[in-house]
Design goal:
This protein is an alpha+beta fold. Helix content is 48%, strand content 15%.
Length: 701
């Protein structure tokens, strides 16, 4: 039977003693360092073991920088890195630790240490024996020790976590509570006794109920200089509530915390993978979906909102993330597209995205890219936004017309309620400032007058509190001047008239695009678009928030008359108007008056009508019907044939004289006969010119 010897002279040589001996001291937590001092003292006594092995006391170095740090590999251990560096530089001959678990609780660090010790011939010692990493059996024992250390830590954590989960399942595990809650003397969770904390958190939930956006709530709090209560996690307990400037993460942490809904929750986050950064493993903490929370006890303690409202807030926050492929509408933005985020493709049923086209990039287009993204095919469809938006806008204003008086009254009530809320916040803020100043005064009065060192400091603090209270009072007076607490009768009448004028408010330059979209979403849930269902028109269905639906359509802009909404009806009407003897401009004016629109969405012009007649082969109805042109028209003007007979020339020569401007003529429109103005003097002059030209030609010939 083989047995490893513990005698130092068999593995420790003069070469080892010629180098330094390192004592590695570590405790896993600050609590262990504070309360388990015997273990720490036992590790420091390993210096005597190194001296007994033949190292002088001055050549024994203690590395204790890692006291209070875990050896699981998730903490940056400066002392362990220093030990590895000394071994790699060849300065170490002996490494002593109380046991393997002190050096490392993870195999990555442990085997890195073994490899370096084996490479540089360093002896490893614990509280019982020596190990030579170059020897196979010693290295095997050291490897097993490292594995057992890691497994032991895993088993300890497993037992602790199982007991923690079992206690949490009964709701008895004491968890940290946010700033709006507190533990009473019996350990029960109650609302924070501070009335200002309660009022501020209630305001956050009320404004989110109104604005539907965490960022909008944050902007409102910053605009009115309303900080949020925060309970720091780090530091000695119990943690006091501090006030911090509102930002989006703080508002989101309030809205997403189920404790404010009166729920006891365990397992909101879990460690899922990680990465190695600067030689240290960094675990990754991820949020767990609400359905997968290990423990969720509803109505376990008082809250600021109910569970149903909490779940609705989570759905709204998730929907505010602008992801069209996930079916999220996103928050209303400042772009020109009124239906941004709530349009659905009527062909494939997916959420439509938005893009801007045009030379300036300011013309919105609703686009369904599902087929292109999933299959690499063409776009499912694209719908120009502005015509659809205008039609939906008119439908919305018409639907709100019966309720305009109720809307005006509700707006007045909302303005007054918001003013009361702000007045309440100011009152609490002023009260706290006065309390802080009074408290500083009492502290100053309680100090002995002879103790001027303390008295001067307390006097300075008292003055600072008085100045802060005075500044808050001044800010409050300025706010009172800008925001009257009670609306007078003229203001109420003006606001009511303004509220009843919904189109005026809607089209006002002061109303932003985001506000219009917010109003629209209060009334309309979704709009389904399909411009390929019927030729030349956009069909859309409105899904109202009440659950009702309505279908509508409008003529869309097309590039060719082949896609025109009602081409045959347009053709029949042009034929009828042309047969009635109307000119092209008159036909265009009639078509515009009857609601016809040209292919590209513009009004008809005479040129459009002439092109359509030419394409369809519709000849212009002449002023003399279908009979031959007379020599003279009823108004005394000549036709081309009459002018040719009067001058004794051919009709082609008459057209030549018209081009030269020798006489004037006009057509009612293209295709109509010419009406030529000729006086007797012009006829005689032209005949004489024609005769001279003929004689000169004979003489020349």
């Amino acid at each position: 039977m083989l047995r490893a010897s513990n005698r130092p002279d068999e593995c420790v040589t003069a070469a080892h003693r010629g180098k330094l001996a390192y004592i590695y001291v570590r405790q896993s937590s600050v609590n262990q360092v504070r309360h388990h001092q015997e273990s720490t003292e036992l590790q420091y006594r390993l210096v005597d073991r190194a001296v007994a092995l033949g190292w002088p006391h001055e050549r024994v170095q203690v590395i204790d920088e890692d006291l209070g740090k875990s050896g699981a590999g998730t903490v940056d251990r400066v002392g362990f890195k220093k030990l590895i560096a000394e071994i790699g530089l060849g300065n170490a001959g002996l490494v002593i630790s109380l046991d393997a678990s002190r050096l490392a609780r993870n195999n990555r660090d442990w085997h890195q240490l073994l490899d370096l010790c084996s490479l540089f011939g360093v002896i490893i010692a614990d509280g019982e024996r020596l190990y030579d990493p170059c020897a196979y059996h010693d290295r095997l024992l050291l490897g097993l020790s490292g594995i057992m250390s890691e497994a032991e830590l895993h088993q300890i954590k497993q037992r602790l976590h199982q007991g923690e989960r079992q206690k949490a399942a009964r709701g008895e595990l004491r968890l940290p509570v946010p700033a709006g809650l507190a533990h009473d003397r019996s350990g029960e969770i109650i609302l924070n006794p501070d009335e200002q904390v309660q009022a501020r958190l209630g305001l956050v939930f009320a404004k989110f109920r109104e604005l539907h956006s965490a960022r909008a709530v944050m902007r409102y709090l910053r605009k009115n200089d309303l900080p949020l209560p925060v309970r720091p996690v780090l530091g000695p307990a119990p943690h006091d509530v501090v006030w911090r400037q509102a930002d989006s993460p703080r508002v989101l942490s309030i809205l997403q915390n189920p404790a404010y809904a009166g729920a006891y929750v365990y397992g909101r986050r879990r460690v899922d993978g990680g990465r190695i950064s600067h030689g240290v493993y960094r675990p990754k903490t991820t949020k767990v979906p609400i359905a997968d929370w290990e423990v969720c006890l509803q109505a376990a303690h008082p809250g600021y909102i109910g569970w149903e409202e909490f779940m609705e807030n989570q759905r709204r926050l998730a929907n505010n993330i602008n992801r069209y492929e996930a079916g999220h509408s996103g928050v209303p933005r400042k772009g020109a597209a009124l239906l941004q985020g709530i349009t659905v493709c009527g062909r494939c049923g997916r959420r439509m995205s938005l893009r801007y086209s045009g030379p300036a990039g300011d013309y919105p287009v609703y686009t369904c890219r599902a087929d292109r993204h999933h299959e690499g095919g063409p776009l499912c469809q694209e719908v120009r936004a502005l015509p659809v938006d205008a039609h939906v806008e008119s439908i919305l204003l018409e639907a709100l017309r019966p309720d305009k008086i109720a809307i005006a009254i509700a707006a007045l009530g909302q303005i007054e309620e918001e003013t009361r809320q702000l007045e309440r916040q100011w009152a609490l803020r002023r009260e706290r400032a006065r309390y802080e100043a009074e408290r500083a005064r009492r502290q100053y009065d309680a100090v002995e007058p002879e103790n001027r060192l303390v008295a001067r400091s307390l006097e300075r603090v008292w003055e600072e509190k008085l100045r802060a209270a005075e500044a808050i009072e001044q800010d409050y007076e300025r706010w009172r001047q800008d925001e009257p607490l009670v609306l007078n009768e003229p203001d109420r009448e003006a606001l009511q008239r303004l509220g009843e004028d919904l189109p005026g408010i809607w089209h006002s330059p002061a109303t932003t695009a985001a506000e219009r979209k917010g109003i629209l979403r209060l009334i309309i849930d979704e709009v389904i678009l399909d411009q390929k269902r019927f030729r030349g028109q956009v069909w859309f269905k409105i899904l109202w928030q009440t659950g009702a639906t309505s279908e509508h359509s409008l003529q869309r802009r097309v590039h060719t008359y082949g896609d025109y909404i009602d081409l045959e009806r347009l053709r029949r009407r042009v034929i009828e108007l042309n047969a009635a003897g109307k000119m092209d401009k008159e036909i265009a004016a009639t078509l515009n008056a009857e609601g016809f629109v040209a292919a590209r969405g513009c009004p008809f012009k005479g040129e459009n009508v002439w092109l359509l007649r030419t394409r369809w082969g519709i000849p212009t109805v002449k002023i003399n019907g279908t009979s031959a042109n007379p020599d003279r028209w009823p108004d005394g003007s000549y036709s081309v044939q009459g002018a040719a007979a009067a001058l004794g020339v051919t009709p082609q020569t008459v057209f030549d004289y018209l081009a030269r401007g020798w006489f004037e003529g006009h057509q009612l429109t293209k295709g109509q006969p010419w009406q030529i103005e000729l006086s007797d003097d012009q006829i005689n002059t032209l005949r004489a010119r024609i005769a001279r030209n003929r004689r000169s030609r004979k003489e020349v010939s």
